[in-house]
């Protein structure tokens, strides 16, 4: 699809090596940054490529200049996945488009064409089993299927489990006795002239031996497809009429069989409970997320009944709120569904009439227009406000939250995986013993202000949150990340030496640690820093790891191993080693180190935000008459910062709930210093 607009891109930059082996230099984003004036302030779609020309990320923007410039900010302030993407890329180009619909279409087409490694693909895969009907064959077959869509096959689902499909088939085959055997079994029974067991118990019409012809068998399959497609009431009424007719004709055996068939249909329908009484066709979408990942759940409702459910857990490439997650999901998922329906000749609509979401995306009108084109009729995107749809949306949200929790705990809760992870770390890093206690340090700040650090603890591969610690970094203006790491390590292990009585120069200076070092004699509980880790992980590469090792050597701590985990290629750096240790991407040990690092990052970010928020709410606003903590918080939530609040007018502040002209004037007076914040006594 050709879209209007023109290609604008920077000439190919000088090659900057993307690491293909440990130690090779990473690309510097500044080396391929386009001149700011060359980027148009227009809507468009952009793509990042590596030095080999492979597209690694595709995105769209209302303002290309503003969006692209955000990628070339200070690397330390970027989202971890964004930082990894821009340091892997070596080239960026863009295409200007005329409308938001064109941007959506081009973005999806590029993602589909290039399959960028940093873009999320909501594609169906073997995770979700479906019920496949091979309508393209002379004798269609019903079977459980996982894999890519094919032409001549209709698909129903997806189902959460394969056993759910088999259970549904077992109920329905007595009513719709269609073929379920493979091609080999079908031919073999045709050759021997005897049906299989299902043919003997009337759960197959046995077309293999000619008990029914091809047309009759196809009619059975079509009735089966109609039932799964939602036309259930018509089939039930038809069977009830046949049962009444058989009873009137005194054919009680046939009437009893039809009665049992009706019961089987109703039991199958009960497994798909009515959730929307108006018979709505809709998809209900919900999200649960944190700073690094997001879980999405979708319930497919057809004819008012939940016909399928699926979910994904994805990595975030960029910071994204719920509205942005909704937009990206709708573009990726329904674009993929439309392509699958086209490639498989599936009669089912790839997009439902209605999509219920937790928040509306910014370009909801353009998105609805694009989805309507995919469907061929009007599609509505909305947030349910009340009634059954709101209740169902809350149920889907609970499922998303539960799936996200289970994802976080699945590997960590697996004893075998945790044992394997610790053994892989021991072998990979050459440790004497498996590191049963691992601590990780991360530093968080914004351009050197409000510098804080976190220390998180994992024992036996599980987080021990009671031992988490937070640090305020002293003399932050003079310290970089490496020096900040050194300060945290020094403070943490000085406390360890003091609490275990190993830090004093002579016995007279040793503190009273009781008969059990590390245990508080008054409370009987472990002291805060009394136990050292077997492994100390720092967020960073060789300089950070070496700084931590130097501090431990300075303090005389010799039984703690140190390593650094670099985000770029997930390399593990050991102090004094010129090359990193490379753990397999599928390694449980690497996954445990990543989870430890991400938890330290989350804990540090949370503390940093608390400090920054506390700093904004203090001082300048504290002396305003009638302005308590709740109102101060409301002001900062609305305007985002004290600087933006100073730039606001009295009328804008007074328009907020709970504020009036007098309070608004007092707030501005306190911030600008025009009049005293407090009235004179």
TrEMBL record:
GO molecular function, one term: DNA binding
Localization, UniProt: Cytoplasm
Annotated spans, Disordered: 1-36, 504-526
Protein name as catalogued: UvrABC system protein C
Gene3D superfamilies assigned: 5' to 3' exonuclease, C-terminal subdomain, GIY-YIG endonuclease, UVR domain, UvrC, RNAse H endonuclease domain
Presence of the UniProt keyword DNA repair in the record: yes
Physiological role: The UvrABC repair system catalyzes the recognition and processing of DNA lesions. UvrC both incises the 5' and 3' sides of the lesion. The N-terminal half is responsible for the 3' incision and the C-terminal half is responsible for the 5' incision.
Keyword Flavoprotein: no
Domain UVR, chain residue ranges per copy: 233-268
Composition skew (Basic and acidic residues), residue ranges: 1-13
PROSITE patterns reported in the protein's UniProt record: GIY_YIG, UVR, UVRC
Subunit organization: Interacts with UvrB in an incision complex.
Superkingdom of the source species: Bacteria
Cross-referenced InterPro entries: GIY-YIG_endonuc, GIY-YIG_endonuc_sf, GIY-YIG_UvrC_Cho, Hlx-hairpin-Hlx_DNA-bd_motif, RuvA_2-like, UVR_dom, UVR_dom_sf, UvrABC_protein_C
Record-linked SMART domains: GIYc, HhH1
UvrC family homology region profile domain boundaries: 284-552
Domain GIY-YIG: 41-120
Main subcellular localisation: cytoplasm
Organism: Pseudonocardia hydrocarbonoxydans
PANTHER family given in the database record: UVRABC SYSTEM PROTEIN C, UVRC/OXIDOREDUCTASE
CC per GO annotation: cytoplasm; excinuclease repair complex
